[in-house]
Amino acid sequence: MALPLIIPSAGGIEVKGRRRLEHPAKFEELIADLTSQLEAQTEGSDEFVITDLDVSQNKLTLEQFQTLFSALGFPNIRVARFRMFGCPALNDDVVQVLCDYIRNLSPECAPSEMHLSDCAITTDGFNALCSALEETELYPKATSSTATMGSPLYLRLENNYIDEGVIQQKVDAGVLRPFTKTSSKLAPVSGPKANLVVKALNGSYAQNKGEAPAPEDAPPPKQVHDTRRTASQDWSPVHPVQFMQMFMGKAAAKGALPWTGIAKGAALAKGAMSPALLAQMTKGLPGKGKGKAALQQHAPHAQWQAWSQSGKEESSSWNQAASKDWQQNDWGQDWQKDKWRDWKADSSWQGSSGTSTDRSRTPVGRNHNQAPAWQQQQLQHNQQPALQQQQQRQQTSAWQQQQQQASAWQQQPKQQQPQRQQTSAWQQQQQQASAWQQPQQQQQQPQRQQTSAWQQQQQQQPLHGSNHSSSSRSRSGSSSSRRSSSSSRSSSSSRRRRRRSRHPHGKSTSLRSIG
Protein backbone atom coordinates (compact mmCIF):
# COMPACT_ATOMS: atom_id res chain seq x y z
CA MET A 1 0.00 0.00 0.00
CA ALA A 2 1.51 3.31 -1.11
CA LEU A 3 1.95 6.09 1.38
CA PRO A 4 -0.17 9.14 0.55
CA LEU A 5 1.67 12.08 -0.94
CA ILE A 6 0.32 14.37 1.78
CA ILE A 7 -0.02 13.18 5.36
CA PRO A 8 -1.02 15.06 8.52
CA SER A 9 1.61 15.98 11.09
CA ALA A 10 1.66 17.47 14.56
CA GLY A 11 1.97 21.05 13.30
CA GLY A 12 0.17 20.79 9.95
CA ILE A 13 0.89 18.54 6.98
CA GLU A 14 3.91 16.89 5.33
CA VAL A 15 4.52 16.37 1.62
CA LYS A 16 6.15 12.97 0.94
CA GLY A 17 7.19 13.19 -2.71
CA ARG A 18 10.76 11.89 -2.71
CA ARG A 19 11.37 9.80 -5.87
CA ARG A 20 7.62 9.63 -6.49
CA LEU A 21 7.00 12.48 -8.94
CA GLU A 22 8.74 11.17 -12.06
CA HIS A 23 5.44 10.69 -13.82
CA PRO A 24 3.59 13.91 -14.67
CA ALA A 25 0.29 12.48 -13.42
CA LYS A 26 1.74 12.01 -9.94
CA PHE A 27 2.92 15.60 -9.85
CA GLU A 28 -0.49 16.87 -10.96
CA GLU A 29 -2.13 14.74 -8.27
CA LEU A 30 0.17 16.27 -5.66
CA ILE A 31 -0.56 19.84 -6.79
CA ALA A 32 -4.33 19.24 -6.83
CA ASP A 33 -4.36 17.67 -3.38
CA LEU A 34 -2.06 20.35 -1.96
CA THR A 35 -4.12 23.19 -3.41
CA SER A 36 -7.39 21.81 -2.03
CA GLN A 37 -5.94 21.35 1.45
CA LEU A 38 -4.35 24.79 1.50
CA GLU A 39 -7.61 26.43 0.40
CA ALA A 40 -9.54 24.61 3.13
CA GLN A 41 -7.01 25.39 5.84
CA THR A 42 -6.53 29.07 5.06
CA GLU A 43 -10.26 29.74 5.47
CA GLY A 44 -10.38 28.58 9.08
CA SER A 45 -7.00 29.59 10.54
CA ASP A 46 -4.60 32.48 10.48
CA GLU A 47 -1.51 30.38 9.73
CA PHE A 48 -1.01 26.96 8.21
CA VAL A 49 2.31 25.12 8.39
CA ILE A 50 3.83 22.59 6.03
CA THR A 51 6.38 21.09 8.37
CA ASP A 52 8.25 19.21 5.63
CA LEU A 53 7.96 19.66 1.86
CA ASP A 54 10.01 16.85 0.32
CA VAL A 55 10.18 16.75 -3.49
CA SER A 56 13.82 15.69 -3.60
CA GLN A 57 15.46 13.30 -6.10
CA ASN A 58 12.92 13.98 -8.83
CA LYS A 59 13.57 15.23 -12.36
CA LEU A 60 11.12 18.09 -12.13
CA THR A 61 11.13 20.65 -14.90
CA LEU A 62 11.20 24.42 -14.60
CA GLU A 63 7.45 24.61 -15.31
CA GLN A 64 6.71 22.12 -12.53
CA PHE A 65 8.77 24.13 -10.03
CA GLN A 66 6.89 27.27 -11.06
CA THR A 67 3.57 25.49 -10.50
CA LEU A 68 4.71 24.29 -7.08
CA PHE A 69 5.76 27.74 -5.86
CA SER A 70 2.55 29.24 -7.25
CA ALA A 71 0.55 26.76 -5.15
CA LEU A 72 2.55 27.84 -2.11
CA GLY A 73 1.66 31.48 -2.72
CA PHE A 74 -1.45 31.39 -0.55
CA PRO A 75 -1.37 33.91 2.30
CA ASN A 76 -0.29 32.76 5.75
CA ILE A 77 1.25 29.54 4.44
CA ARG A 78 4.59 28.69 6.01
CA VAL A 79 6.91 25.94 4.79
CA ALA A 80 9.25 25.08 7.64
CA ARG A 81 11.61 22.85 5.62
CA PHE A 82 12.27 22.65 1.87
CA ARG A 83 13.80 19.36 0.66
CA MET A 84 14.79 19.76 -2.97
CA PHE A 85 18.18 18.04 -3.00
CA GLY A 86 19.19 15.63 -5.74
CA CYS A 87 17.11 17.33 -8.45
CA PRO A 88 19.27 17.44 -11.62
CA ALA A 89 16.97 20.04 -13.24
CA LEU A 90 17.18 22.50 -10.34
CA ASN A 91 19.46 25.02 -12.02
CA ASP A 92 19.92 28.79 -11.89
CA ASP A 93 16.49 29.42 -13.48
CA VAL A 94 14.75 27.47 -10.73
CA VAL A 95 16.80 29.36 -8.13
CA GLN A 96 15.48 32.61 -9.61
CA VAL A 97 11.90 31.38 -9.08
CA LEU A 98 12.83 30.49 -5.50
CA CYS A 99 14.27 33.98 -4.95
CA ASP A 100 11.03 35.60 -6.12
CA TYR A 101 9.14 33.41 -3.67
CA ILE A 102 11.47 34.46 -0.82
CA ARG A 103 11.05 38.17 -1.56
CA ASN A 104 7.26 37.89 -1.21
CA LEU A 105 7.36 36.21 2.22
CA SER A 106 6.63 37.83 5.55
CA PRO A 107 9.01 37.27 8.49
CA GLU A 108 6.46 34.96 10.11
CA CYS A 109 6.28 32.69 7.03
CA ALA A 110 10.01 32.45 6.32
CA PRO A 111 11.34 28.86 6.12
CA SER A 112 13.84 27.55 8.65
CA GLU A 113 15.71 25.04 6.45
CA MET A 114 16.49 24.77 2.76
CA HIS A 115 18.20 21.65 1.36
CA LEU A 116 19.58 22.35 -2.15
CA SER A 117 22.57 20.00 -2.34
CA ASP A 118 23.39 17.71 -5.33
CA CYS A 119 21.66 19.98 -7.83
CA ALA A 120 22.83 22.00 -10.89
CA ILE A 121 23.28 25.43 -9.26
CA THR A 122 26.19 27.52 -10.51
CA THR A 123 27.82 30.73 -9.31
CA ASP A 124 25.09 32.90 -10.91
CA GLY A 125 22.33 31.12 -9.05
CA PHE A 126 24.32 31.33 -5.83
CA ASN A 127 24.74 35.11 -6.18
CA ALA A 128 21.01 35.50 -6.88
CA LEU A 129 20.11 33.53 -3.75
CA CYS A 130 22.48 35.58 -1.57
CA SER A 131 21.02 38.80 -2.97
CA ALA A 132 17.50 37.69 -2.05
CA LEU A 133 18.64 36.93 1.50
CA GLU A 134 20.41 40.28 1.82
CA GLU A 135 17.53 42.35 0.43
CA THR A 136 14.94 40.96 2.83
CA GLU A 137 14.78 41.21 6.61
CA LEU A 138 13.79 37.60 7.15
CA TYR A 139 17.00 36.35 8.72
CA PRO A 140 18.18 35.86 11.35
CA LYS A 141 14.71 35.01 12.66
CA ALA A 142 14.32 36.60 16.09
CA THR A 143 12.14 34.90 18.68
CA SER A 144 10.68 38.25 19.80
CA SER A 145 10.82 41.94 18.93
CA THR A 146 13.30 42.63 21.74
CA ALA A 147 15.53 39.58 21.21
CA THR A 148 19.21 40.15 20.47
CA MET A 149 19.81 36.67 19.00
CA GLY A 150 18.13 34.95 16.08
CA SER A 151 18.24 31.84 13.89
CA PRO A 152 19.83 32.13 10.44
CA LEU A 153 18.59 30.01 7.55
CA TYR A 154 19.87 26.42 7.62
CA LEU A 155 21.27 26.14 4.08
CA ARG A 156 22.86 23.17 2.28
CA LEU A 157 24.57 23.75 -1.08
CA GLU A 158 27.28 21.07 -1.24
CA ASN A 159 27.94 19.09 -4.45
CA ASN A 160 26.79 21.91 -6.74
CA TYR A 161 28.88 23.80 -9.32
CA ILE A 162 29.63 27.03 -7.45
CA ASP A 163 32.99 28.76 -7.37
CA GLU A 164 34.33 28.29 -3.84
CA GLY A 165 36.16 31.62 -4.04
CA VAL A 166 32.82 33.41 -4.44
CA ILE A 167 31.43 31.48 -1.48
CA GLN A 168 34.42 32.61 0.60
CA GLN A 169 33.73 36.22 -0.37
CA LYS A 170 30.18 35.96 0.96
CA VAL A 171 31.54 34.40 4.14
CA ASP A 172 34.04 37.23 4.56
CA ALA A 173 31.26 39.77 3.95
CA GLY A 174 29.20 38.27 6.77
CA VAL A 175 26.30 37.09 4.62
CA LEU A 176 27.01 33.40 5.23
CA ARG A 177 28.60 31.55 8.13
CA PRO A 178 30.21 28.09 7.87
CA PHE A 179 28.25 25.76 10.10
CA THR A 180 28.90 22.29 11.54
CA LYS A 181 26.92 20.09 13.88
CA THR A 182 28.95 21.32 16.82
CA SER A 183 28.38 25.00 16.03
CA SER A 184 25.77 27.17 17.65
CA LYS A 185 22.63 27.70 15.58
CA LEU A 186 21.97 31.16 16.98
CA ALA A 187 23.57 34.38 15.79
CA PRO A 188 23.13 38.09 16.53
CA VAL A 189 20.16 39.71 14.82
CA SER A 190 22.59 41.79 12.79
CA GLY A 191 24.73 38.75 11.96
CA PRO A 192 24.82 36.29 9.03
CA LYS A 193 21.74 35.51 7.00
CA ALA A 194 22.36 31.79 6.62
CA ASN A 195 24.33 28.96 8.22
CA LEU A 196 26.07 27.20 5.33
CA VAL A 197 26.56 23.54 6.26
CA VAL A 198 30.11 22.21 5.85
CA LYS A 199 31.79 19.01 6.98
CA ALA A 200 34.71 20.79 8.62
CA LEU A 201 35.85 24.36 9.19
CA ASN A 202 38.81 24.05 6.84
CA GLY A 203 37.80 26.48 4.08
CA SER A 204 36.37 23.78 1.80
CA TYR A 205 32.76 23.90 0.60
CA ALA A 206 32.57 20.55 -1.29
CA GLN A 207 31.69 21.90 -4.74
CA ASN A 208 31.94 19.97 -8.00
CA LYS A 209 34.29 21.03 -10.77
CA GLY A 210 33.27 21.75 -14.34
CA GLU A 211 29.79 22.24 -15.74
CA ALA A 212 26.54 20.70 -14.59
CA PRO A 213 25.32 17.80 -16.78
CA ALA A 214 21.96 17.75 -18.50
CA PRO A 215 19.10 16.23 -16.47
CA GLU A 216 18.95 13.17 -18.73
CA ASP A 217 22.69 12.61 -18.28
CA ALA A 218 22.67 13.03 -14.50
CA PRO A 219 23.76 10.07 -12.36
CA PRO A 220 21.14 8.10 -10.42
CA PRO A 221 20.11 9.57 -7.09
CA LYS A 222 22.07 8.68 -4.00
CA GLN A 223 20.72 6.40 -1.34
CA VAL A 224 19.90 8.71 1.55
CA HIS A 225 19.30 7.38 5.05
CA ASP A 226 17.10 10.00 6.60
CA THR A 227 16.37 9.50 10.29
CA ARG A 228 13.64 12.14 10.22
CA ARG A 229 11.46 10.10 7.93
CA THR A 230 9.15 8.11 10.18
CA ALA A 231 8.07 5.69 7.44
CA SER A 232 9.21 4.57 4.00
CA GLN A 233 7.61 5.99 0.90
CA ASP A 234 6.03 2.58 0.18
CA TRP A 235 4.83 0.63 3.16
CA SER A 236 2.72 -2.41 4.10
CA PRO A 237 0.75 -1.53 7.21
CA VAL A 238 -1.21 -4.00 9.32
CA HIS A 239 -4.81 -4.27 8.27
CA PRO A 240 -7.06 -2.17 10.57
CA VAL A 241 -9.27 -5.15 11.44
CA GLN A 242 -6.20 -7.24 12.31
CA PHE A 243 -4.94 -4.40 14.49
CA MET A 244 -8.22 -4.26 16.40
CA GLN A 245 -8.30 -8.05 16.78
CA MET A 246 -4.80 -8.05 18.28
CA PHE A 247 -5.45 -5.34 20.85
CA MET A 248 -9.23 -5.28 21.41
CA GLY A 249 -10.44 -8.78 20.61
CA LYS A 250 -12.94 -10.09 18.10
CA ALA A 251 -15.77 -8.03 19.54
CA ALA A 252 -14.05 -4.84 18.42
CA ALA A 253 -13.61 -6.24 14.93
CA LYS A 254 -17.36 -6.80 14.72
CA GLY A 255 -18.10 -3.20 15.69
CA ALA A 256 -18.83 -3.74 19.41
CA LEU A 257 -16.24 -1.37 20.89
CA PRO A 258 -15.71 -1.36 24.67
CA TRP A 259 -16.15 2.43 24.91
CA THR A 260 -18.81 4.88 23.82
CA GLY A 261 -18.63 8.05 21.84
CA ILE A 262 -16.19 6.68 19.26
CA ALA A 263 -18.23 8.01 16.37
CA LYS A 264 -18.69 11.55 17.66
CA GLY A 265 -17.54 14.73 16.00
CA ALA A 266 -15.34 14.45 12.94
CA ALA A 267 -15.33 10.64 13.04
CA LEU A 268 -19.13 10.61 12.77
CA ALA A 269 -19.01 12.99 9.83
CA LYS A 270 -16.59 10.70 8.03
CA GLY A 271 -18.67 7.59 8.73
CA ALA A 272 -16.11 5.92 10.97
CA MET A 273 -16.89 2.34 12.02
CA SER A 274 -20.08 2.23 9.96
CA PRO A 275 -21.28 -1.20 8.71
CA ALA A 276 -20.48 -0.27 5.12
CA LEU A 277 -16.95 0.78 6.09
CA LEU A 278 -16.41 -2.43 8.06
CA ALA A 279 -17.61 -4.51 5.12
CA GLN A 280 -15.22 -2.65 2.84
CA MET A 281 -12.34 -3.06 5.31
CA THR A 282 -12.85 -6.83 5.63
CA LYS A 283 -12.56 -7.38 1.89
CA GLY A 284 -9.41 -9.27 1.09
CA LEU A 285 -8.61 -9.90 4.76
CA PRO A 286 -6.38 -12.96 5.23
CA GLY A 287 -8.34 -15.91 6.62
CA LYS A 288 -11.62 -14.82 5.00
CA GLY A 289 -11.19 -16.74 1.74
CA LYS A 290 -9.22 -13.97 0.00
CA GLY A 291 -5.84 -14.32 1.58
CA LYS A 292 -3.93 -14.41 -1.71
CA ALA A 293 -5.47 -11.19 -2.91
CA ALA A 294 -4.65 -9.52 0.37
CA LEU A 295 -1.09 -10.77 0.29
CA GLN A 296 -0.69 -9.46 -3.24
CA GLN A 297 -2.18 -6.15 -2.14
CA HIS A 298 0.32 -5.77 0.72
CA ALA A 299 3.34 -7.00 -1.24
CA PRO A 300 6.14 -4.47 -1.86
CA HIS A 301 6.08 -2.67 -5.15
CA ALA A 302 8.51 -3.55 -7.89
CA GLN A 303 9.75 0.02 -7.96
CA TRP A 304 10.76 -0.12 -4.31
CA GLN A 305 12.57 -3.41 -4.95
CA ALA A 306 14.43 -1.83 -7.85
CA TRP A 307 15.47 1.11 -5.67
CA SER A 308 16.67 -1.28 -2.98
CA GLN A 309 18.77 -3.29 -5.45
CA SER A 310 20.25 -0.21 -7.11
CA GLY A 311 21.20 1.25 -3.76
CA LYS A 312 23.00 -1.77 -2.32
CA GLU A 313 26.44 -0.59 -3.37
CA GLU A 314 25.80 2.95 -2.15
CA SER A 315 24.29 1.62 1.06
CA SER A 316 27.35 -0.52 1.77
CA SER A 317 29.69 2.43 1.20
CA TRP A 318 27.47 4.60 3.37
CA ASN A 319 27.53 2.02 6.15
CA GLN A 320 31.33 2.06 6.16
CA ALA A 321 31.42 5.83 6.43
CA ALA A 322 28.65 5.86 9.00
CA SER A 323 30.43 3.31 11.16
CA LYS A 324 33.44 5.61 11.37
CA ASP A 325 31.23 8.55 12.28
CA TRP A 326 29.47 6.41 14.86
CA GLN A 327 32.74 5.57 16.60
CA GLN A 328 33.81 9.18 16.87
CA ASN A 329 33.77 10.80 20.28
CA ASP A 330 30.90 13.21 19.57
CA TRP A 331 28.36 11.84 22.02
CA GLY A 332 25.86 14.39 23.22
CA GLN A 333 26.47 16.83 20.35
CA ASP A 334 23.23 15.88 18.68
CA TRP A 335 20.30 13.72 19.68
CA GLN A 336 20.52 11.26 16.80
CA LYS A 337 23.83 9.50 17.49
CA ASP A 338 25.10 7.27 20.25
CA LYS A 339 21.72 7.07 21.99
CA TRP A 340 21.83 3.28 21.80
CA ARG A 341 24.28 3.30 24.73
CA ASP A 342 21.75 4.93 27.04
CA TRP A 343 19.04 2.50 25.89
CA LYS A 344 21.33 -0.50 26.42
CA ALA A 345 22.41 0.65 29.87
CA ASP A 346 18.81 1.08 30.99
CA SER A 347 17.63 -2.32 32.21
CA SER A 348 14.33 -1.09 33.64
CA TRP A 349 12.49 -2.30 30.51
CA GLN A 350 13.22 -5.92 31.45
CA GLY A 351 10.82 -5.92 34.38
CA SER A 352 9.82 -9.32 35.72
CA SER A 353 8.73 -10.91 32.46
CA GLY A 354 11.48 -13.52 32.73
CA THR A 355 10.03 -14.85 35.97
CA SER A 356 6.53 -15.61 34.63
CA THR A 357 5.25 -19.16 34.83
CA ASP A 358 6.03 -21.40 31.87
CA ARG A 359 2.69 -22.97 30.97
CA SER A 360 3.85 -24.55 27.72
CA ARG A 361 4.80 -27.76 29.56
CA THR A 362 2.33 -30.37 30.80
CA PRO A 363 2.65 -30.99 33.68
CA VAL A 364 4.25 -27.84 34.99
CA GLY A 365 7.98 -28.23 35.64
CA ARG A 366 9.40 -28.44 39.13
CA ASN A 367 11.33 -25.20 38.82
CA HIS A 368 8.52 -23.25 37.20
CA ASN A 369 8.73 -20.53 39.84
CA GLN A 370 12.42 -19.90 39.21
CA ALA A 371 13.89 -17.88 36.41
CA PRO A 372 16.49 -19.43 34.12
CA ALA A 373 20.07 -19.36 35.33
CA TRP A 374 21.19 -16.81 32.74
CA GLN A 375 18.40 -14.44 33.78
CA GLN A 376 19.29 -14.84 37.45
CA GLN A 377 22.92 -14.03 36.69
CA GLN A 378 21.85 -11.03 34.67
CA LEU A 379 19.59 -9.81 37.47
CA GLN A 380 22.39 -10.22 40.00
CA HIS A 381 24.74 -8.35 37.69
CA ASN A 382 22.18 -5.56 37.33
CA GLN A 383 21.64 -5.41 41.10
CA GLN A 384 25.34 -5.02 41.92
CA PRO A 385 25.48 -1.31 41.01
CA ALA A 386 22.37 -0.71 43.13
CA LEU A 387 23.96 -2.44 46.14
CA GLN A 388 27.16 -0.49 45.69
CA GLN A 389 25.21 2.74 45.50
CA GLN A 390 23.31 1.80 48.68
CA GLN A 391 26.58 1.13 50.54
CA GLN A 392 28.00 4.42 49.34
CA ARG A 393 24.87 6.21 50.52
CA GLN A 394 25.16 4.61 53.97
CA GLN A 395 28.81 5.60 54.22
CA THR A 396 27.95 9.08 53.05
CA SER A 397 25.16 9.38 55.65
CA ALA A 398 27.52 8.24 58.44
CA TRP A 399 30.13 10.72 57.30
CA GLN A 400 27.52 13.47 57.21
CA GLN A 401 26.49 12.66 60.80
CA GLN A 402 30.12 12.95 61.90
CA GLN A 403 30.40 16.26 60.10
CA GLN A 404 27.24 17.52 61.80
CA GLN A 405 28.55 16.50 65.23
CA ALA A 406 31.86 18.19 64.52
CA SER A 407 30.11 21.36 63.42
CA ALA A 408 27.94 21.29 66.58
CA TRP A 409 31.08 20.85 68.72
CA GLN A 410 32.74 23.74 66.95
CA GLN A 411 29.76 25.99 67.63
CA GLN A 412 29.97 25.42 71.42
CA PRO A 413 33.28 27.30 71.96
CA LYS A 414 31.67 30.36 70.38
CA GLN A 415 29.07 30.37 73.17
CA GLN A 416 31.66 29.69 75.94
CA GLN A 417 34.13 32.30 74.74
CA PRO A 418 33.48 34.83 77.60
CA GLN A 419 33.97 32.08 80.20
CA ARG A 420 37.20 31.02 78.52
CA GLN A 421 38.46 34.61 78.61
CA GLN A 422 37.72 34.89 82.35
CA THR A 423 39.39 31.54 83.03
CA SER A 424 42.47 32.56 81.08
CA ALA A 425 42.73 35.85 83.07
CA TRP A 426 42.46 33.96 86.41
CA GLN A 427 45.12 31.51 85.21
CA GLN A 428 47.44 34.40 84.37
CA GLN A 429 47.04 35.80 87.91
CA GLN A 430 47.77 32.41 89.42
CA GLN A 431 50.88 32.10 87.29
CA GLN A 432 52.10 35.55 88.40
CA ALA A 433 51.48 34.70 92.10
CA SER A 434 53.39 31.44 91.78
CA ALA A 435 56.23 33.28 90.06
CA TRP A 436 56.38 35.81 92.99
CA GLN A 437 56.27 33.07 95.66
CA GLN A 438 59.15 31.07 94.26
CA PRO A 439 61.95 33.64 95.04
CA GLN A 440 60.45 34.33 98.54
CA GLN A 441 60.52 30.65 99.34
CA GLN A 442 64.08 30.42 98.09
CA GLN A 443 65.12 33.32 100.39
CA GLN A 444 63.35 31.92 103.46
CA GLN A 445 64.79 28.46 103.06
CA PRO A 446 68.32 29.30 104.49
CA GLN A 447 66.74 31.16 107.44
CA ARG A 448 64.58 28.17 108.22
CA GLN A 449 67.62 25.94 108.06
CA GLN A 450 69.53 28.20 110.54
CA THR A 451 66.54 28.34 112.94
CA SER A 452 66.19 24.60 112.90
CA ALA A 453 69.93 24.17 113.62
CA TRP A 454 69.75 26.61 116.59
CA GLN A 455 66.72 24.76 117.99
CA GLN A 456 68.61 21.49 117.80
CA GLN A 457 71.52 23.02 119.75
CA GLN A 458 69.15 24.33 122.43
CA GLN A 459 67.56 20.92 122.80
CA GLN A 460 70.95 19.16 123.10
CA GLN A 461 72.35 21.57 125.92
CA PRO A 462 69.61 22.19 128.53
CA LEU A 463 71.91 21.61 131.55
CA HIS A 464 74.59 24.05 130.54
CA GLY A 465 72.05 26.79 130.64
CA SER A 466 70.99 26.14 134.32
CA ASN A 467 74.59 26.14 135.67
CA HIS A 468 75.30 29.36 133.96
CA SER A 469 72.29 31.02 135.61
CA SER A 470 73.29 29.96 139.16
CA SER A 471 76.83 31.24 138.75
CA SER A 472 75.50 34.52 137.51
CA ARG A 473 73.27 34.73 140.54
CA SER A 474 76.20 34.16 142.96
CA ARG A 475 78.25 36.74 141.22
CA SER A 476 75.46 39.27 141.47
CA GLY A 477 75.18 38.60 145.28
CA SER A 478 78.87 39.19 145.88
CA SER A 479 78.78 42.36 143.90
CA SER A 480 75.85 43.60 145.96
CA SER A 481 77.70 42.86 149.23
CA ARG A 482 80.69 44.76 147.99
CA ARG A 483 78.48 47.62 147.07
CA SER A 484 76.92 47.68 150.58
CA SER A 485 80.35 47.70 152.26
CA SER A 486 81.52 50.55 150.10
CA SER A 487 78.38 52.47 150.92
CA SER A 488 78.92 51.90 154.62
CA ARG A 489 82.46 53.23 154.37
CA SER A 490 81.34 56.29 152.54
CA SER A 491 78.73 57.00 155.20
CA SER A 492 81.30 56.72 158.00
CA SER A 493 83.70 59.11 156.29
CA SER A 494 80.96 61.62 155.85
CA ARG A 495 80.18 61.47 159.55
CA ARG A 496 83.80 62.17 160.46
CA ARG A 497 83.87 65.24 158.27
CA ARG A 498 80.80 66.65 159.93
CA ARG A 499 82.34 66.19 163.33
CA ARG A 500 85.46 68.10 162.35
CA SER A 501 83.38 70.94 161.10
CA ARG A 502 81.67 71.21 164.47
CA HIS A 503 84.90 71.12 166.62
CA PRO A 504 87.70 73.12 164.92
CA HIS A 505 90.24 72.48 167.69
CA GLY A 506 89.52 69.02 168.29
CA LYS A 507 92.00 67.56 165.83
CA SER A 508 93.63 65.34 168.31
CA THR A 509 90.46 64.03 169.56
CA SER A 510 89.46 63.24 166.12
CA LEU A 511 92.70 61.53 165.43
CA ARG A 512 92.48 59.56 168.49
CA SER A 513 89.04 58.59 167.87
CA ILE A 514 90.03 57.45 164.41
CA GLY A 515 93.02 55.52 165.81
TrEMBL record:
* Cross-referenced SUPFAM superfamilies: RNI-like
Region annotated Disordered sits at 207-235, 283-515
The name on file for this protein is Uncharacterized protein
The annotated regions of Low complexity compositional bias extend over: 292-310, 324-334, 370-493
What the entry lists under Gene3D superfamilies is as follows: Ribonuclease Inhibitor
InterPro entries cross-referenced by the UniProt entry: LRR_dom_sf
Q: Where is the composition biased (Basic and acidic residues)?
A: 335-345
Q: Which domain of life is it from?
A: Eukaryota
Q: Which ranges are annotated Basic residues under compositional bias?
A: 494-506
